Amino acid sequence: MTKAQARQKAKELVAKMTVEERLSQLVYNSPAIERLGIDEYNWWNEGSHGVARAGTATVFPHAIAMGATFDPDLVGEVADAISTEGRAKYNKHVKYGDHDIFKGLTFWAPNINIFRDPHWGRGQETFGEDPFLTSQLGISFINGIQGKGDFYKAAACSKHYAVHSGPEKNRYGFNSVTDMHDLWETYLPAFEKTVEAGVAGVMGAYNSMNGVPCCAHSYLLVDVLRKKWNFDGYIVSDCDAIGDIYKFHKYVNSLTEVAAVSLKNTCDLNCGGTYGALVDAYEQDLVTEDEITAAAENVFTIRYLLGEFEEVRPYSDIGLDKLDSKEHRALNLKTAEQCITLLKNNNFLPLDKNTDKKIAVIGPNALSVTALEGNYNGYASEYVTVADGIRRVFTNADIKVEKGCNYCMEHLNYCSGFGNMLSDGVAIAAEADITILALGLDCSIEGEDTGFVDDYTTSGDKNSLYLPATQQKLAEAVCDVCENVVVVLMCGSSIDVGEKVRNHAKAVIHSWYPGSLGGLALANVLSGEVNPSARLPITIYRGDHDMPDFEDYSMKGRTYRYIEGDALYPFGFGLSYTNYKYDNAKLVSADGEKITVSAEVENAGGIAGKEIVQVYAAYTDSRVVTPHWQLCSLKSVNLEADEKKEITLDIDRYWVKAVNVDGERVEPDGKITLYIGGHQPDSVSDKLLGYPCLKIEV
């Protein structure tokens, strides 16, 4: 079914409804209209890294971990598996008359907000800090969710539109202030590109932008999304965001007015109950019948594209054999292996998997399931924690496991126990040949509006870029008694383990929230069964880095594109167990809106590996500030030991244009330089990897 055909059918169906019936369909928990053969439908479902909150499903690595793969094709495979499992569940839900929340086919993912500040607790839900990487992975995710057939396999939704990335504690009434340059250079590109790619839905954000709530923002929703980008899908509010416009933003004087102003600005669907006030708004002539009809047609176009009203529903042959299947488990493990990012290695890894040495696994994430899951997760039928994975792979080793401390809080003289476990952890480290320190966070510490406040976290946002004090204490004590320490971080953000631990550790690994099989993936990397290839989708800052104020949405001093000073570990950085060499970079063509470059990439080490070839553009413009450089193309290449390949990469000129003060993309009036390599062209990456990127003048 084409979108035009779906829209025509939606028009015909909506025309048969009364105004009141049309209004009833503009809330997320849409009731049945039995006389027209319309079942109830709940629009709210989550699937950012697996079907969430609806029983057993494959729990893939979290979005930030998928970002670390730098591999759009792999992310597309994951999304395809998610929508397949979504259909499998939906087919059974329909069979048994279950239309409850989290049972539909409208997944409110991906989160394509830019992870601009490392304190933000929900950054784990994003693909990272870069607009290009976010765009590419977002497009692949959407294509995987929606499929390529005549009907959507499921419907994706780009969120949260727009300029949204904390703070969590006051997000319901927060005003994000940004200028047109930052808006169009950083905050909007991923939305623009995913709309171009055909995403079914867009979700508005909680916050205001420049004084106007995002779910009633005429510039964002009407001028840009509907008119400039010609978006003809559905717009949904974040949950209760429309009510917040009245309650917290104080933008209007009543719920009736807020319902009216949101609908008039083409927010079709309310996640929440505020659109119940549209009945009064209609009776008071605050909204027109045409506006109500247009919204109803938008939402029913999506339902038709999902095949809900077909005599034989599409994808009805997808059964439960596809759920938590052998194939999806293999894909889950592969994705987890390719998201694990090696940040330091003093020629210590990989370890011999046949070793009979004493290995201590210590830390709050040694046996943690929640640190595998992240948030917005489903429930896996099997979890392999860090300790479990190490036991499975290092079968001859003498393995001891201790928690050693809690994530954040240490309680001395704690009568309920498990408050002070430091000596237990240090004791096994002192007798171990190798200690794996499994540190980091989980969604109770960094996450969405947790409401929890202590010295380290405020409602899910971190107050520090270091480890929590209890974990720092444990890590330093372990380093005092064990020579061979490998630090494994599991979290969704930037954390500095401190100079003492950093310098002492033989290796440092960032494992993110790696999914239900994350512990096995980690053990496979530790043993060399898998050669790590992941790259940082964010900047890892030193703990004392002078960050701009969290509530300041200017990009000055933020992310690798505008950082002031050096990163600890830069965006785009990641080590391998082999070495790569680049040579013979060439400008192939620079005609029209596409630039093509090539370079030779050689695996100069002793084992096969996967290299992430990256191209960055540095351009200058006398009229406006420009980034240090901007990622503009990437490609994965698998190389056997000593193998060499010529790699060709295309660059859309969109990503090498300057954004002026009015938000327009223009040809820069200065020179354009392209850098090709396995990292960005900064001095820290050059030093850590031992070679500079190749340069091409355009």
Folded structure, characterized:
There is one protein chain. The protein is globular. Helix 15 (386-393) crosses helix 19. The chain is α/β, with parallel strands linked by helices and 698 residues long. Helix content is 30%, strand content 17%. The model has no long low-confidence stretch (mean pLDDT 97). Among the domains are: 1-25 and 158-178 and 196-287, TIM Barrel, CATH 3.20.20; 337-559, Rossmann fold (3-Layer(aba) Sandwich); 580-697, Sandwich (Immunoglobulin-like), CATH 2.60.40.10.
What are the main properties of this structure?
single chain; 698 residues; alpha/beta; four-stranded antiparallel β-sheet; Immunoglobulin-like; 21 helices
Give the helix/strand layout:
Blueprint: H1 3-15, H2 19-24, E1 29-30, E2 41-42, H3 63-69, H4 72-95, H5 131-146, E3 157-161, E4 175-176, H6 180-187, H7 189-196, E5 201-204, E6 208-209, E7 212-213, H8 218-228, E8 234-236, H9 241-247, H10 255-264, H11 278-283, H12 289-305, H13 326-339, E9 341-345, E10 358-362, H14 370-373, H15 386-393, E11 398-402, H16 422-431, E12 434-440, E13 457-458, E14 461-462, H17 469-481, E15 485-490, H18 499-504, E16 507-510, H19 518-527, H20 559-562, E17 580-589, E18 594-603, E19 609-619, E20 630-639, E21 644-652, E22 658-659, E23 665-666, E24 672-677, H21 683-689, E25 694-697
Parallel strand pairs: 3-5, 4-6, 5-8, 10-11, 10-12, 12-15, 15-16
Antiparallel strand pairs: 1-2, 6-7, 9-16, 13-14, 17-18, 18-21, 19-20, 19-24, 22-23, 24-25
Please state how the strands of the largest beta sheet are arranged side by side: 9-16-15-12-10-11
Structure summary, number of beta strands: 25
CATH topology of the domain at 337-559: Rossmann fold
Morphology call:
globular
Strand share of the residues?
15-25%
Q: What's the CATH superfamily of the domain at 337-559, by name?
A: Glycoside hydrolase family 3 C-terminal domain
- Biggest sheet overview: 6 strands, mixed
Average pLDDT, all residues: 97
